[in-house]
Amino acid sequence: MQITAQMVKALREKTSAGVMDCRNALAKSEGDMDKAVMLLREQGFARLAKREGHDVSNGVIETYIHGTGRVGGMIEVNCETDFVAKTPEFKALAHNLVLQIVATDPRFISSNQIPEGTASHPAEVCILEQKFIKDESKTIRDIIAETAAKVGENILVGRFARFEVGKQANSETETE
Questions:
Q1: Which long-range contacts (CB under 8 A, 24 or more apart) does 50-54 make?
Q2: CA atoms within 13 A on the CB side of 157
Q3: For residues 97 and 72, what is the distance between their CA atoms, to the nearest angstrom?
Q4: Which structural domains are found in the chain, ordered by start?
Q5: Within 13 Å, how many C-alpha atoms sit on residue 168's CB side?
Q6: How far apart are CA 88 and CA 38, in angstroms?
Q7: Kind and range of the H or E element at 36?
Q8: pLDDT tens-place string over residues 68-87
Q9: In this structure, are residues 76 and 94 in contact, taking their beta carbons and an 8 Å threshold?
Q10: What does the alpha-carbon distance between residue 83 and residue 137 come to, in Å, rounded to a whole number?
């Protein structure tokens, strides 16, 4: 099958992969766009595995205040380089994560932070384990991994906070 420039362009817009990577993926998948997307994702994850352990000291802090002004959130999302922190994909991820925090009120980043003996279910209280509010077929961990594969760097949630008027975050922050 002949791979056209329009096919490469469409795949590039879908995945943000390089021109030659898109062309090669389309050639391997015999022009099947869905298979090509999967091949590019696999390549992205393979590249990420090589970068595991790299320092993730760059990133952004994203905030969101709901329209009523009664609830808001803040998140720190980290990556390896300042260049990636400035990309539209990374900024969109940070924005989606802060929306998730405001909408679902998680208490922990991952399940290993839940205190022993707590009856909380990780899918309810850990942001990485929650279903993504915009696409419930994916978890937050999935969308972070997809973005990391697109940008080619490790991405981590550093910390987050959720604020709601009249509600204390937890007992340790209560004032007397």
A1: 51/80, 51/152, 51/153, 51/154, 52/154, 54/80, 54/153, 54/154
A2: 28
A3: 12
A4: 5-51 (1.10.8.10), 58-166 (3.30.479.20)
A5: 7
A6: 21
A7: helix 33-51
A8: 899 999 999 999 999 999 99
A9: no
A10: 30
Which residue in this structure is represented by tokens 């022993």? Answer: 116
Q: Which residue has the tokens 């204390």?
A: 168
Token pair of 148 as six digits: 């990391």
Q: What is the pLDDT along the chain (176 residues), one digit of tens a residue?
A: 788 888 888 877 776 666 777 788 888 888 888 888 788 777 765 565 556 666 778 999 999 999 889 999 999 999 999 999 999 999 999 999 999 999 999 999 998 898 888 888 899 999 999 999 999 999 999 899 888 888 888 899 999 999 999 987 653 333 33
Q: Convert 91-132 into a string of H (helix), E (strand) and C (coil).
A: HHHHHHHHHHHHHHCCCECCHHHCCCCCCCCHHHHEHHHCEE
